[in-house]
């Protein structure tokens, strides 16, 4: 299986090359050249999660990895539960937040970490990543204690929640965290500057492990199959996905392209509604990003959307029939948190937003699944404010909340960061 750079289709690489380089020529995204429907989907659905995921990933990766190696990666990466919870007769919650960072990004980050550790075989690599909260924790925990890999996470000082900071800044070992005395954009700028410094890239073996890495995307295909496997045989659900960079939606569409039975998908956004307006009007007209209750989705330039269009243009997916997108206001998100709570289900704001888009767009004959992308306790302050009661912390968060922050501090100055990166 080849991976092509969708901006420069003459560039074709293997899966390991796509993972190690991250981005192609001219900042182009890598994507599988072919998406061939699987045979025997019903038999696949009857398998356990690890066996099935190994087969799915083998299908997508090709012979660049052996089945044994892939199975090892899958077992180590996906070592936490993945419940499908019935919220009402027609509607189910797919809980993707039971991994170590309590967000669905664990699936992609942990699978990518396993792949990289294998592909690098002894070569020293430094993962440099900027985070506004969730990604930093998923990446740091995924690479923690991986031999040959150093991780440096930049984050805006005082602009991540105290609990988020505790999750990724207390690890030590091969994880270094830097509180930048500026905003998230400045952190991202520093990462970009570092990747422009080719001498630095070479010396450190830099890789950013960010959400455009194709390994992260492939990992996410697996849980869509698991959801259908748990539903009564023959069910073709409607999936609703809380969307920011549109990686999660892309993974669902890939799952469908290789044969997963589903009726359609809903991409739910907050007020940062570039995609719903685009699907309505055909015009790509991003507006300045605004802050909302669902801050992991405060994105107006979704960096995976070119892959969604690729699925339509090169792989023939009937996007107009398959995908709708709705913007949900903060008021409706708060209402959804309360409505779900009244049904006995505590959802974080991102998951509640996806439920809202689903429940207002589901026919009586349909079965819906909404993706729960973060543990409710991660957004405890919002939930306590909305529900007027206290929300308990899970044991994992309780534990880290006692630990000491190990971060360095730095102004947003590339020369200082460069020294820091080389010092070790
Ligand atoms: C990253 C994130 C999202 C958005 O996912 P995309 O794949 O970028 O669309 C949604 N919810 C939570 C909690 C997240 O951390």
Question: What is the compact description of this entry?
Answer:
By secondary structure, the chain is α/β, with parallel strands linked by helices.
Provide structural commentary:
This protein has helices spanning about 15-20, 40-45, 50-60, 65-75, 105-120, 135-145, 160-170, 185-195, 200-205, 215-230, 245-255, 275-280, 305-315, 320, 330-340, 350-360, 380-385, 395-400, 415-424, and strands at about 5, 10-15, 30, 85, 90-95, 125-130, 150-155, 175-180, 205, 240, 265-270, 325, 370, 410. It is α/β, with parallel strands linked by helices. The strands form three sheets. Strands 4-5-13-10-11-12 form a six-stranded mixed β-sheet, sandwiched between helices. A five-stranded parallel β-sheet has the order 9-6-7-8-14, with helices on both faces. Helix 5 crosses helix 10. It is globular, with a radius of gyration of 20 Å. It has a domain at about 65-100 and about 215-395: Rossmann fold (3-Layer(aba) Sandwich).
What topology does this entry show?
Blueprint: E1 3-5, E2 12-13, H1 15-21, E3 30-32, H2 41-45, H3 49-61, H4 67-77, E4 84-86, E5 91-95, H5 105-120, E6 125-130, H6 134-143, E7 149-156, H7 162-168, E8 175-180, H8 184-196, H9 198-204, E9 206-207, H10 214-230, E10 238-242, H11 247-257, E11 264-269, H12 274-281, H13 305-313, H14 319-322, E12 323-327, H15 330-342, H16 349-359, E13 368-372, H17 380-387, H18 395-400, E14 408-410, H19 414-423
Parallel strand pairs: 5-13, 6-7, 6-9, 7-8, 8-14, 10-11, 10-13, 11-12
Antiparallel strand pairs: 1-2, 1-3, 4-5
Helix pairs in contact: 3-4, 3-10, 4-5, 5-6, 5-10, 6-7, 10-11, 11-13, 15-16
This protein binds pyridoxal-5'-phosphate.
Pyridoxal-5'-phosphate is lined by residues 103, 105, 134, 211, 242-248, 296-297, 350, 373-374.
